[in-house]
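User: Could you go from structure to sequence for me? I need the amino acid at each position, not a summary. Structure tokens:
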């Protein structure tokens, strides 16, 4: 079956540009300049092939339609630096939390909520930190903030936040559910009205009950390692993460162990697959595969896990300025971004600093094209791959 019309959004958050390319031929159909998108908040899939993202320099939430020549559908002022971005299952109600930005300690307590249907927006003060966020839908939508130190899931009524007075007033949670202090990673399953938070001891789950949350059974990692990232699989009711193990010292990152972690929310079964040593973080969901990039001084690769349990490893050309032994994998180095669409077999992987995107067919593992958006893609940039009706918006958390 041929792929539906597929487009790739490529953001260079350092240079300040966004390019839209057709897949697989790589034609640039639209571009934005002077736009420094938050790589951490990422792209949020919205219905109709659209995406939301945050311009950290201008302080704007952008709604982009990559299938429309105008590209920018809406721009709404929000508090920055953006840390996390999420919407309710309808894609209408959005929330943006703030984080460190280029600071060493958390300093901002601002939260912005936006109603895309009316254009209304409000900013409130919550708690200093780097909170994760989910937005539960229904007749009375809820904003759930995942805080650390002390850990908690803080529940706010969306309507109350949107009706807040000017001047960024402080708000008190409607309800609070305790969490461990080391939470990092958030997901929502709209069908069951559940939220999930990754912690050292496992994935904490909570279900909406009226205007609050009821804690569920913790899902164990089943490993001495832990996940720092959660993602809902929109192709089935499942959660994905990458488990990182080994010494926490970032200078020893080439020794870190990595496992793909899949938990089926229907059967309760968990499967782990070894990915190899080095740096693995975000993942992408294609039609029949889940894609991971692994960075290591001995060679980088794209790892494709098939729904039939097959594992295919695709070598990737080295990057100038890649993380090296004796240094950290985070600061002043090039990285890779990965993107896919659940309605496509294409997987896109950046070669940070080189301005190249490897386009790989997940079914064969072959590189079909090497796209050049026209920007260096510093630090790996950030990508989103969409078709008009791929169902990616079933995951209402920015990636």
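Assistant: Here is the amino acid at each position, in order:
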């Amino acid at each position: 079956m041929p792929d539906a019309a597929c487009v790739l959004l490529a953001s260079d958050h350092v240079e300040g540009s966004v390019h839209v390319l057709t897949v697989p031929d790589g034609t640039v159909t639209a571009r934005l300049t002077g736009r420094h998108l938050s790589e951490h908040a990422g792209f949020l899939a919205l219905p109709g092939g659209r995406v939301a993202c945050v311009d950290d320099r201008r302080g704007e939430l952008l709604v982009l339609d990559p299938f429309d020549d105008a590209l920018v559908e809406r721009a709404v002022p929000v508090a920055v630096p953006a840390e996390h971005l999420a919407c309710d299952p309808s894609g209408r109600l959005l929330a943006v939390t703030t984080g460190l930005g280029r600071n060493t300690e958390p300093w901002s307590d601002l939260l912005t909520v936006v109603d895309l249907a009316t254009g209304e927006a409000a900013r409130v003060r919550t708690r200093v930190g780097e909170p994760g966020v989910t937005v539960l839908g229904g007749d009375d939508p809820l904003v759930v903030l995942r805080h650390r130190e002390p850990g908690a899931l803080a529940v706010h009524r969306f309507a109350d936040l949107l009706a807040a007075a000017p001047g960024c007033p402080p708000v008190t949670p409607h309800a609070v559910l305790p969490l461990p202090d080391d939470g990092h990673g958030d997901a929502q399953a709209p069908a069951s009205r559940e939220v999930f938070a990754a912690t050292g001891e496992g994935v904490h789950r909570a279900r909406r009950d009226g205007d609050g949350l009821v804690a569920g059974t913790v899902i164990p990692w089943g490993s001495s390692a832990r996940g720092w990232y959660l993602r809902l699989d929109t192709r089935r009711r499942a959660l994905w993460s990458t488990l990182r193990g080994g010494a926490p010292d970032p200078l020893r990152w080439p020794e870190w162990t990595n496992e793909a972690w899949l938990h089926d929310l229907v059967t309760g079964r968990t499967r782990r697959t070894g990915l190899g040593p080095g740096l693995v973080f975000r993942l992408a969901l294609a039609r029949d595969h889940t894609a991971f990039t692994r960075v290591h001084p001995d060679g980088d690769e794209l790892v494709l896990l098939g729904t039939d349990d097959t594992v295919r490893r695709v070598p990737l050309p080295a990057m100038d300025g890649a993380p090296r032994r004796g240094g950290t994998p985070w600061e002043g180095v090039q990285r890779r971004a990965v993107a896919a669409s659940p309605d496509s077999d294409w997987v896109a992987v950046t070669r940070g600093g080189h301005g190249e995107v490897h386009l790989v067919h997940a079914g064969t593992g072959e590189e079909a094209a090497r796209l050049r958006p026209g920007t260096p893609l510093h630090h790996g940039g950030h990508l989103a791959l969409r078709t008009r009706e791929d169902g990616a918006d079933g995951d209402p958390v920015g990636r």
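One structural detail worth keeping in mind: The first strand starts at residue 6 and ends at 12.
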